[in-house]
Amino acid sequence: MPSALPDGEPVPADGALPASALAGAADRPLGFYLHVPYCATRCGYCDFNTYTATELRGTGGVLASRDNYAETLIDEIRLARKVLGDDPRPVRTVFVGGGTPTLLAADDLVRMLGAVREEFGLAADAEVTTEANPESVGPAYLAALREGGFNRVSFGMQSARRHVLDVLDRTHTPGRPERCVAEARAAGFEHVNLDLIYGTPGESDDDWRASLDAALGAGPDHVSAYALIVEEGTQLARRIRRGEVPMTDDDVHADRYLIAEEMLSAAGLDWYEVSNWATSEAARCLHNELYWRGADWWGAGPGAHSHVGGVRWWNVKHPGAYAAALAGGRSPGAGREILSDEDRRVERILLELRLEEGVPLSLLRPEGLAASRRALTDGLLQQGPYEAGRAALTLRGRLLADAVVRDLVD
Question: Which stretches make up the Radical SAM core domain (predicted)?
Fold first, then answer.
C-alpha cells in the first residue's frame, strides 16, 4: 500500500456512501483488508505507509501506539457495518497486511478477524490471510493464528542470499522463511505463500536461481515474485543516486522473470497473474483476485484504500490521526472519488489483462482493438483466447505487459 495519497473529494464525517455504490451489492463479493502500519525497522526499498517506533515517538502519543491498535481498527470495522447498512453479504476474504502485522500479539489479529466475523459473518469457505515477517513468528504464534481462524499465511522471503537482503535492509536470517513454511504446515495452514523480489542491485542470475531453489524446496503452494521498483524518497533510491549500489535495468528484470517462470512452472506452480504462481486454483490468493476483478473491499487502517460499487476512498495516513478520527466518532477517510463508467472500463483493462484468462475484447474501443490485433501479430497475445473474444498475454506479452496495457487502453 503506497504511502502517497491521491487527491479527491471529502469523505462525509459518517462515511456514508452514495446509493449507487450499494446498488447490486449482493451480486459482488466483499473482502476486508486490515492494515497494520508498524515495522520493527524500515526496509530501504519500502514506500508503504508504515512506521517504526522511533518514527512514531512524540507524534501521536497513546493514539499511535500499537498496544491499543486492534481496538482502534475494530472501531473502523464497526463503522463499516453502519456504512454498508443491511448488506447481506458474508465476507469472502480477509487479508491482514502491513507493515508487519505479526508485530501485534496473535490475539490482536484474531480479535480483529473476530470483529469482521461478528459484524458481517464469514463465508463458509472464506480465505483469511496474514502477512508475516519470518523473524516475528514462531510455532506457538502460528498455532494461535490457525486456531483463531486464519487459514493462509504469506511470508516475506525476498531472497535467500545475505548480501541481497542487506541491500534491501531486510533483517531476517537466510533460511528462516523456509523454516517458517514448515512451522506453518505443522500448525495446520494448508495455504502458504512466499514473497520474492528480483532485480536487487548486486543480485546475479545465480543468486536469483538460489532464491527460487530455496523457496521451492520449502514447499509453499503459492509464490509471488516481484521486480524491484526503486521508489523516490526511499533509502535505496538515495543510495543509488549517490553511486553506492548499481541499478538494474529492464533487460535484467526480463531475464529474471524468465528464470522464475521456467523454475516455478517446472516445479508445478502455474502463473495465474503476471507476478503470481500457484500449485492449484485453490492455492490462488482470492483476496488479490478481488482487487484485480474490481470487486468490493473495505480497507481498514491508516492509509488503507477501499472500493465499493465504483466509489474508492482512502484513509488518513498517520496512526495518530486515524485513531483520533475514530475516537471522535468520525470516518478516518481522507478523500474519495466516484469512478465513471469510463474509469471502470479502463481499470478493468489495466487489471484483468494481467490475469491468465485476460480481458474481454468487448471492453476495447476501436483504437484498442486495432492495437490488440498488432499485439497478436507481434506474439504478445495468445491466438486461441483471441479467437474466443479475449486478449490474453503470452509469455513475451507478460514481459511487456505495461506497454500492452497502454496500447489497449489508448
Answer: 24-270
